[in-house]
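We treat protein structure as text, and this decision shapes the records that our systems exchange. This encoding replaces a full spatial description with a residue-level series of whole-number codes. Below, we set out a record of this kind in full and without editing:
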Amino acid sequence: MSFKEAAIEILKRTGQQLHYSEIFKRAEKEGLIDSRGLTPWATIGAVISRDIQKNGNQSPFYKSHEPGFYGYKKPGDYVLVAKTGYFIKKKKKIYQLKEQLQSKISPRRKGD
């Protein structure tokens, strides 16, 4: 199993955000991957990060506001990450949420 497939499997099972080192530990413990590299936990983090950069919102992963933490999202879901937490919304509702957030934030003006 590839690192990407193993990460998807682990994140699906847990249903929560995990640090990339924890994703690797769980995948190795369950026998999903076997790596003889020097830093396989960093490799799995790089694989997830590269997938997010390459595929954007089409990626099965999303990055949390905490460094090194990633989560799994179902196909068709969009993710909005805020400092107070993360929200997974369906495509139709993301625009409503965006409008609500923008209405609460006033634009900064010179002298503020």
Remarks:
- The first strand starts at residue 18 and ends at 19.
